[in-house]
Task: structure prediction
Amino acid sequence: MTQKLSVDEFNKYLSKDKKGTYDAISPTAWTVAYRRTFSDIPYSKEIYDELEKNRIKNDAPDLPDEYKFLDMAPLFEARHKLINKLVLAQNYFQILDIASGLTPRGLEMTRNKDVKYVEVDLPEIIKQKRSIVQAILKKDNIPSRINLHLEIGNALSIKDLKKATKHFEKDKPIIIITEGLLRYFDFKEKTIVAKNVNALLKTFGGGWITPDIIYKRNLSPAFVANNERVSKLTGINIEVNKFSSVEAARTFFKNLGFKIQSHGFLEVLSDLVSPEKLKMSQNDVKEIIGPRIVFIMKL
Result:
């Protein structure tokens, strides 16, 4: 039977998770995967179902409801769909997804055999992701995706990232995606990632797409509560990692050699299905996703 713990009990469990159930895939990635199940993003339900099988198999407790925070589901659906839209608009077929976690995008985009998709993340996460992908392909009787590659690597290591690009042709441009990563990094770490991306784009050409332009602003109670929970789960103070403004973010990346285009999450408002499933008003959804933006950056 699934264990139901309070937030405090769950946090204590995380601190002594001997089986590594929540160590291999962070609780924040778990919650995003859960929220995606309220969308129509391909493979979202399949990925979450496999996660749940592994959790139950390891007799690990379910996430407390306080950490599931479903009001944020439209945000993650919009983020995914806007990135997809921008990737397809670039018309590039080589994609490097750094700190990819549980994203279904690799499975989704490699349905097109012309696409080469490389996901890079830390060892335990990639081990878990490989298991999940294999289970989905086997269950659905889908042939092996020879154009989907899951590579071990650290976003802060240019050596790791260069190794992951061995699957790409050097005379063709690449799209690099960082989705949900930079908010956990301080400004020194953000700089390292940006310099690593810069080095890769000098080799291949192409662009960098990231929605991680998290800046300081007046937040609704829902966002404040969500950020507090994320900080509790990760032990990272999200507030100190924020840009002071959108313009400050532009200046930060411009000084590191990038020119920037900006796109708002509202561009995909009409494509969202989670608000209706969760009985959320359009005004509530606009309040949640309205201020959020994605940068497309090129050298």
Observations:
- The domain at 79-298 is CATH 3.40.50.150 (Rossmann fold).
- The longest strand covers residues 116-121.
